[in-house]
Amino acid sequence: MIDGKLLANPFYDRINHYYDAPVEMKAGEKKEIVLEGWTWVGVAFRLMWKSPGKDDFEVVPESALYPCPKDEAPTPVAAPKIESKTGFAGDRSYVLIIPSDGTYVHYTLDGSEPTRLHGVLYTTPITIVKSATLKTRSFLPNGGQSQVVEQECTVKETPLKEGVRIFRTGNSFTANAQVYLQQVEAAGGFTQFSKDTIGAGTTTKYLWENKVSGVPKDNTPYDHQVIPGDARKLVKDNAPFDAYITQPFYTTTNALTMAEEVEYTGKFFDLVLAGNPKADLWIYAQWMPWSLPVDMAKNSNPKTTTSKEWREAMEKYIASCEQLRELLQAKYPGNKVRILPCASELLALQKEIEDGKIPGMTSYPMEISSDNLHLGHKGCYLVSLVHFACLYKKSPVGLVVEDTTLTIAQQTRMQEIAWETVRNYRWAGLSQE
For the domain bounded by 165-428, which CATH number is listed? Predict the structure, then answer.
């Protein structure tokens, strides 16, 4: 080795601790380097040396990653607790994991051991849909971990019943309603069968005249790709359908008049009736955007800046849907024409959030919406509950699903709001019509 000076500079670890105090050594010399701070993988060293007669150090090309030695006295970490809740419809149960103070938790359901690098970060209750071994472990952010806690989660295997066969037309708001509907139906004991004619920002008139069929793109709730294809063939090839769901649209540029909405909804419903003369017709009363609501008749409302203005716009839209229902019922007196009251449900939820009655939720638009127009995961879950309650005439209370970002308490209250809305709304199919 060249007789010169060597600098060992531990400069990086996996939690972005940087060290800039070089340790000077002679060639062949060994020194112990004590690092302050914690690392869970190892430390990389930048090595620099200077040969005799040279003024500057040169960086050695090879760097080294030295694994961190095991902690001789690890920080004690209490293991998380597991609580199971069972007895829901569809043979589902869910699991609550209660971390110890100051820790976060990873869990697995495939029998593998959770580590800092492996497993799912626990944020909301875990829905158990099939038997699995749950393993979980607590971690301190700056080092230390608990023992693994595990529990066998056994689910009785019960075949799902065939659900309602649905044909839909609409746009991204229709897609919002489908994000969790299949999971909610499965939680209620049913399979889903549906076919859709959907295009972003489109009306029933556009979908009919352009012979468009749309399907979700990459399983996202809002992005749809337009696929050439005639709805006539789509409906015929998959008949019979039990229900047709139409979505009235309201934008200033694409809105239909009431007469147009009746005409083009009727064209699609006639296709469904050809395969099942007793099919039901549902009007999907969705919601108004928070900042600029307009109605179906192309009359813009003032820009919404307050809760009161938004609620007034929602009520006006609901009245338009009820007017559309009346006209369609007159056109199809032998079939049931009903309304999926998602707008009424959202009104009820907004009022409860405003009154501080939903635990952990303080702002309707921030908590429920993903942008000015679309619902986020929480809102999508809510409207799927109304669909389930209307289509199956069953309470959605207890139908817990995964990935909603909602707590069990929040899901439970949304289930109750959905059921209360459907039971009390005249045109939802449960109360006296």
Answer: 3.40.50.1110
